[in-house]
C-alpha cells in the first residue's frame, strides 16, 4: 500500500447543472459556461492527464452522456473511469419521493452502460446532497461505493443506515452498511472557490491552490495510507491559467516518495 493515494476526480456536468440545479439555468450565458467545459475544458484536462500519465475518475450525469456522447466517449477512450452522477444534475433532497429519485438514478445507470458497456460501481450525488432515500436506493441498485459525504478527511469509511437526528434527543449513528464512502471536501472542490458570482467576486486563486497542496502535505506527514480526493469541473478548471496551476500541483505531489494517482474504484476495491 502506498504512503499516499491521490484521486483526481472530474465532475463533468456539462449544461446539466445549470438546467437542473440553479435558478435561471436556461440563461444562454450560463449554458455557454457548461459548453465551454464540454468543448474546451474537458479536452484540455484530458491532454494534461495524458501528459502526466494520470488516470482519473469522471462523474458524468446521464444528461451529459446523452447530450455530448463524443465528448464523454473521449474520456472513456483515454482510459479514465466513468461513474454515476445522476441522470439529471438534480439535488436528491429536492425529489418529491423515492420513486422519482430511483427513476433518475436508473436512467443514469442506463446512460453509462450504453456508453461504456459496463454498470457503474460508484456514485457521487449532484451537489453532494442525499435525501432520506438515497442510501437505500444505492444499496438496492447495487452500488459499491459513494463519494459525496464528509465524515472523514483522508480515510474511507462505511456509510451507516438507521441513524436518527432528532432535535430533542441524542444523535444515534445507526449501523454500518457495506457501502464504502470515499470522502470529499468543499475545501478541495474548484466550483465553490472559482465559479464566478457577482455577489462574491473573484477568489485568490493562488491561495486556493496553496491550500490544496498544504492539505496534501499534512496528510502525507500525518496519515499513513491517506486518500486525498480533489474535485474539479471542466467548465471551471479548464481555463488556461488554472490548468498551469493544476499541472504544478500534480507535478509537486508526484515528487513525494511512494505517492500514487489512482481511481476511486481502486480505492474502494482495496478497502
Key words describing this protein structure:
single chain, 271 residues, alpha/beta, TIM Barrel, 5-stranded parallel beta sheet, 4-stranded mixed beta sheet, 44% helix, globular
Question: Could you say what the CATH topology is called?
Answer: TIM Barrel
Terminal-residue CA separation:
11 Å
Order of H and E elements: EHHEHHEHEHEEEHHEHHEH
The tally of strands reads 9
Secondary structure topology:
Blueprint: E1 4-11, H1 16-20, H2 28-52, E2 57-60, H3 62-67, H4 69-77, E3 81-84, H5 98-116, E4 122-123, H6 134-140, E5 145-146, E6 157-161, E7 175-181, H7 190-194, H8 205-222, E8 226-232, H9 234-237, H10 240-254, E9 259-261, H11 264-270
Parallel strand pairs: 1-2, 1-8, 1-9, 2-3, 4-5, 5-7
Antiparallel strand pairs: 6-7
Helix pairs in contact: 2-10, 8-10
Organism: Halobellus rubicundus
Protein name: Polysaccharide deacetylase
Domain NodB homology: 16-271
